[in-house]
Q: What sequence folds into this?
């Protein structure tokens, strides 16, 4: 990003922080109308700086190499398909794979925030999965928090010279799990337990999510590894253009 773009991101981040500390704001797809209006607004505002950074990230990548658009579209389709396969889990929510790990590994977490937002809008309108009022909360958990952890774990494993397939599996699986930890926290904040408050409610939501989400996270990790193997076999030039593979790497 150039200096002007960095300033825009910084201003939006400052706005989000300022909003977050305003008194009175108490603040996997959470369904339409399930969160109070104040929480819907708060989570939506917190997403703004990440989405602006994501827009600039995608713009830069496409300017550098238009061929990366094919992989970007594939990553978005992967998110749409996997996150559409939902399993009822908790009243007001559901368990499903996210698919965001692949995009985070290939393009970084910023770009995935935009992909996730687009997917969530389409799912809310076409599939009644999630909702427009809860779009901010769902975007933050699935398209921001999860991808950030995925990217961080992948880079840490890369520096530690962990086998690439193992790195991809760990990053995608743990990123998926964090998405549901964040979702449980969002629900706990909105509906704290009478006995124990937010912490008790958070534990209850996690306990209900775990039986379905743990195996789904493992499956997502495996599927992401399979997709990466396929790309390394048939799309090596494209992977080199986006920096996933280094020049001269076998």
A:
């Amino acid at each position: 990003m150039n200096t002007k773009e960095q300033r825009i991101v910084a201003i939006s981040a400052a706005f989000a922080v300022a909003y977050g500390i305003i008194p009175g704001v108490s603040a996997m797809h959470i369904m339409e109308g399930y969160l109070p209006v104040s929480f819907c607004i708060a989570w939506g505002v917190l997403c703004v700086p990440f989405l602006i950074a994501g827009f600039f990230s995608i713009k830069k990548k496409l300017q550098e190499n238009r061929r990366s658009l094919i992989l970007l579209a594939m990553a978005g389709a992967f998110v749409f398909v996997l996150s559409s396969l939902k399993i009822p889990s908790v009243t007001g929510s559901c368990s499903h794979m996210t698919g965001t790990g692949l995009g985070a590994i290939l393009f970084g977490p910023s770009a995935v925030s935009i992909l996730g937002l687009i997917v969530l809008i389409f799912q809310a309108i076409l599939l009644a999965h999630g909702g427009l009022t809860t779009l901010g909360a769902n975007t933050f958990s699935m398209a921001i928090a999860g991808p950030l952890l995925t990217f961080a774990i992948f880079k840490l494993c890369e520096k530690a010279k962990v086998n690439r397939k193992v790195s991809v599996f760990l990053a995608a699986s743990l990123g998926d799990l964090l998405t549901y930890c964040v979702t449980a926290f969002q629900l706990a904040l909105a509906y704290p337990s009478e006995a124990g408050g937010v912490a008790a409610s958070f534990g209850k939501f996690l306990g209900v999510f775990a039986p379905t989400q743990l195996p789904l996270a493992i499956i997502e990790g495996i599927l992401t590894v399979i997709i990466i193997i396929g790309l390394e076999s048939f799309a090596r030039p494209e992977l080199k253009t986006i920096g996933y593979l280094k020049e001269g790497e076998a």
Notes: Strands lie at 87-90, 93-95. Residues 197-234 form the longest helix (38 residues).
